[in-house]
Amino acid sequence: MTIPDLQKIALHSRFMREAGFTLLMASGILALFLWVPTTPPRETTTPSITIATSTTPSAFAQIPLEAKAAIVYDLALGETLYEKNADAQLPLASLTKLLTVYAAISALSLETPITIPQDATRVDAPRVFSAGQIFSLADLSRLTLVASLNDGAAAIANTIALHQNRSEHEALAGVAAALNLSQTYAVNGSGLDVSENISGGYGSARDLARLAGALVEKAPNVTAATTKKYAEAKSAGGTAFKVKNTDPMVDTIPRLLLSKTGYTDLAGGNLALVIDAGIAHPIAIIVLGSSVKDRFTDGTALVAATFAHFAGVPSL
Q1: Residues near 165 by Cβ (< 8 Å), separated by ≥ 6?
Q2: Could you give the CA distance from residue 55 to residue 314 in angstroms, rounded to a whole number?
Q3: Could you tell me if 68 and 290 are in contact, meaning their C-beta atoms sit under 8 angstroms apart?
Q4: SS in 3 state form for 174-225?
Q5: pLDDT tens digits for 263-299?
Q6: Cα 8 to chain center, whole Å?
Q7: Domain map of the chain by residue range?
Q8: Which strand ranges, in their side-by-side order, compose the sheet holding 90-91?
Q9: How far is CA 125 from CA 75, 128, 129, 255, 264, in A?
Q10: Which of the residues in the chain have pLDDT under 50?
């Protein structure tokens, strides 16, 4: 065997040893890669969460409310900004009238004539109408909501029931179901207590926020009347009516789109407000189960907190 042949054999042996070593190293690196977890340890995610958390105090923090339940609901975004027992089902008192008017406007034209029936003139005060008087649905709705008139609500509910050939309860229940108001139902159109233990209407703060927003969207000209100190209208016979708003705060709340009060022995003091937090950015504020006086204090506090929230400050 010649020297060149021996050199070739030596080179081939060396090549095989290096190739084997390289393969062994590659196998080790692959095994190490497979062994190391691909998901970072939990501890590495903690700093990013801490950094992302805002330290700005909430405008709604530690608001003292007399109300049993309340909510501040962003109708534009479908988000809850503040809540206290917002899904608790409570007596609505005259906030039930929001459902009654919404049901009527959904089923009838705003120009539909509504006749005051004899039964409506026998309900508890406040009431101002006489049997046989006729109003357009729009005018009767304005007067009824502004002054919380029980005879007006009874006349509207009666008209809906006759139009649909259903009971008042069934007609109002159908509208609540259509709006997905799962905690809401009405025994009558006014919200007057039926007895010492049964309210004329029940619902949650969350349901009422959505209902109030739906009414503002469907009938802004009707709800705009609830932001004024007085409402005026004439019957078809020419009788003029001027009624005072049951909410004394209407001229102090900026950008108000709707206001509705409610009070009965079972419900306590209730209040529904819709304000515009910006350009076409409605916010519903609902207070349930407060007192006659404190419903307005509660409402004022939540309005101030809402504007502070959108201003990015803890308080105004």
Answers
A1: none
A2: 11
A3: yes
A4: HHHHHCCCCCCEECCCCCCCCCCCCCCEEECHHHHHHHHHHHHHHCHHHHHH
A5: 999 999 999 999 999 989 999 999 999 999 999 999 9
A6: 88
A7: 69-311
A8: 90-91, 201-203, 185-186
A9: 33, 8, 11, 30, 12
A10: 1-55
> Token pair for residue 5?
């042949």
Q: What CATH number does domain 69-311 carry, 3.40.710.10, 3.40.50.2300, 1.20.120.1200, 3.40.190.290?
A: 3.40.710.10
**pLDDT score of 234:** 97
Angle between helices 150-164 and 137-147 (to 10 degrees): 140
What are the φ/ψ torsions at residue 181 (nearest 5 degrees)?
Answer: -90, 85
Give the H/E segment covering residue 270: strand 268-276
Residue carrying structure tokens 């609500």: 153
Q: Which two tokens stand for residue 68?
A: 């049993």
Q: Using one digit for the tens of pLDDT, what is the confidence trace for 19-48?
A: 443 333 334 433 333 333 434 444 344 443
